[in-house]
Every structure is written in C-alpha cells, then in structure tokens.
Amino acid sequence: MDSARLKIRTLLLLTAEAVLLFGAMIAAANLRLGANDAMYEMRFEYGYFKAALAAVFCIAAFYLFDLYDFARMHDRRELVLRLIQALGLAWIALAVIFYLVPQLMLGRGVALIALPLALFVMVAWRAAVHWLMGHPSMGERLVVVGSGDAAIEIAREVISRRDMGFRVVGFVDNRPGLIGKSLINPRVIGLTNELGDIIKRERIDRVIVAMGERRGQFPTDQLLSLSLSGGVQIEESAAFYERLTGRVQLDMLRPSWLIFSGRKRQARTSHIARMTMHRGVALIGAIVSLPICLITIILIKLESKGAVLYAQERVGLNGKPFTVLKFRSMRADAEKDGPVWARTEDERVTRVGRFIRKVRIDEIPQFWNILKGDMNFVGPRPERPHFVRQLAEEIPFYDQRHLVAPGLTGWAQIKYPYGATVEDARQKLQYDLYYIKNQSLMLDAIIIFETVKTILFGHGAR
C-alpha cells in the first residue's frame, strides 16, 4: 500500500478512536452522575474539554504501544494485551494529572467506570477493524508475475501483513508445468501470455513483476498493453517490497534499479532544515543530559579503573574515518586481542556498563560528535573500519551506506534488533538503503520519536 494511503488510513483510525474514547468518557459521566448532572458538567464545567483531554492521553498511549503499526498488530492476543497496557498507562498518567490539578477531573468516580468501558469499546472496535482488514474479500487483489525466490518472498510478506490491505490471488509464470502448483499458499493460476484474461477474470487491481530471468521470457507485450490501457497498476517487485516492508531487499536489487530510482537531490532549504533539526536536538540532548552524565562518570570511576570516555575509530561520510565518543561500558582491557562482535551476554561488560547500554546512556557523548559535524542525529550507525572491510567483501552494496553521514540513531535501529553477525548487518543494510533513498525531514522526525519510544521501553539494547 502506498505510504500516503497508509498514513490516511492511520489518521482515519486515530480519529475514529478519539471519537470512541471521547464518547466512552461521556457515557461514563452519564452512568456515574446521571443525565442531568452530567449535562451540567459538560455544559458549564468544561466537561467536553476534560473528556477530550482523557481521549488525547489514551491516543498518545496507543501510539507508544505501537497500536497504529499495522505490520505489528496482526496478533489478536497481543492486540488486547497492548490495549490493556496502553489504557492502564493513560489512566495512571491521568490520575497524576487529576491529583495535581483536581479541577480537570470529570466528576468523582467517573474514571473507574470509564476505564473498563473504554477497554470494552476499544477491544470490540479493534477486533471488528482487524477482522474487516484481514477478510479475504477486502483489500487490493494482487497477482505476482514470476515463480522464483523474489516472487515467493513478495507473497510471503504480503500474507504476513494482511492488515496492510493486500491479497495475493496467485502467481503467473511462463512454464505450463507450474499451473496449479502451490508455491506457498497462493497457486500458479496461469501463463504470462494469458495475463490480460487473468486480470479480468480474477478482478486484479495490481500486478507485481518479480521475474528473475528476464531475457527472452519477460512478458513485455502483455505488460506494455496493460500499462497503456490504464486498467490495472503495474509495479516492479523491488519498489513494491520497499514500500510494503520499509526496507530494500538485497536479493531483488540490481544496480540499474539504484541508478534510476536513487535518492533525489535535496533542496537547499530542506537540507538546512534537516541539519538545523539534527544539531538542535543534539544540543538540547547534551544540555538536558548533563546531570545524567555526571552521575554516570562517578559510577564508572567507582566500579572500575580506566578512562571514563572510550574513543573509537568509525567510518563516516564517504568512507572518511572519524573518532566516536562513548561512555566506557566494558573493562579497560576488553579489546586487548582485537575487535570482536558484541554479544548478548558479553562478559567484558561491567555492571554499570550493562545498565547504561540498556538505557542508551553510553551513547550520550556522541552529541558532541553531532555538534562537531562528524555525524547527524539520524543516519546509518557508523561501523568500525575492521568490520566495514569484512562486510563490504561479503555483502553487496554495503559501501552505499556511506553516501550519507552516519547517525546516533537510524531507520535500521528502530526497525531491527541489535545485530552482532554478518547476517544481522545484511538485514540492517536493507533498512539503511531505504533511509538513504527516502530521507526527509519528516522521516527523520519519525525516527527520533520512535527512538524515544525505544529508549523508554528498553528494546534492542545490548
């Protein structure tokens, strides 16, 4: 689904839920106070404003618990659990607000009725929405041209994201022997020279072209005719996969695709706005974190001997090396035998180091690197030269991540857990390439907000 359509759907869902939560607060006030007193509260005691405030707190909590991430919220039990957690967090926050400012309370006892009522309404609403979005008869109907690994991967990703609004009707290939064969769940339903008839018969909305071997086999005439007729949307598999998953699939990638769909030259004003935001956030972060830095310095010195700060060479923009700063989280002699990948239970990490890694305090000194211009706040995480050389030999297009300045956080950091292997680096590169192609002020802002969520909930640190 196009990102613009997904944003519209998210906005509609958010608006509908704000209205439902607002209505639940009004209903709870009527149940607790009675119709006459509730009407008086609404009209003369700013009751509508108070109900709207409660709804805003709930919506914010839903966002923090990823309840507007359609790709994640496909498990019904997890959905109910997160709804309970989000509403609980919202009500705790509201309880604190009501204690500090009692005038904002919508009548005594209303919240005790509103909480279970809101939970019931939201569970019923979300169950209905997800049933509707996941229903086989709903959504765009897709046919995938091809039967290779790329075609199967496309279908697998669509099936795992049913709430995204796509349905794979089947595959089309040029080998008669494959007709009727089930590749994963959808079957091969016809030949490429029958594509026009298949589209009419199956009411196809979008054709995804995922043929690996193109020379002499690519259905140019059929696709050209369909494209010119305008009756169906035709899309290349790599571009569709990118929009669906938020990453670039390396196995589908060809140099020509990067050349012709590469990142656009940024307008000067947009570039200045992004740099201003990056430096501004780093400056604010450096000032706000000063007390945390002082406490961290004391704790590091008390636990182990050695320098408080750890300087390490990393590869930056255009492959230029620079020195990154971090609070030391390992023993002073941790790399006496040379650099190694970080591990989940790394015995080199100190007790203080384990905690500051968990809450990302060890990264705070990199605000200075951002202010110096070595890094941006958002971008691919800089890697060490030793590992860059290794990964560039094993992973295609790895050096392309150095086309932009590295960052303290990035698209790969919020989309993929902490990586410590070559395969992890390969997976994260797919997200880095997506960011490089699509970087913008809005995407940077989204990444910053998501990073704050990650720090608050402690996901992905080692």
Describe the largest sheet: 5 strands, parallel
- Characterize the overall form: flat
Q: Assign the structural class, choosing from mainly alpha, mainly beta, alpha/beta, alpha+beta, or little secondary structure.
A: alpha/beta
Give, in spatial order, the strands making up the sheet with the most strands. Answer: 3-2-1-4-5
Provide the domain count: 3
The percent range for helix content is 40-55%
Q: Total number of helical segments?
A: 18
Structure description:
With 462 residues, the chain is of the alpha/beta class. It folds into 3 domains: 3-134, no CATH class; 140-245, 3-Layer(aba) Sandwich (Rossmann fold), CATH 3.40.50.720; 268-457, no CATH class. The chain has helices spanning 3-33, 35-44, 47-64, 76-100, 110-134, 149-160, 195-202, 220-229, 237-245, 255-260, 268-288, 290-303, 351-358, 366-372, 385-394, 411-415, 422-438, 441-457, and strands at residues 140-145, 166-173, 188-191, 206-209, 233-236, 309-315, 321-327, 376-378, 407-409. Helix 12 (290-303) packs antiparallel against helix 13 (351-358). The longest helix has 31 residues, at 3-33.
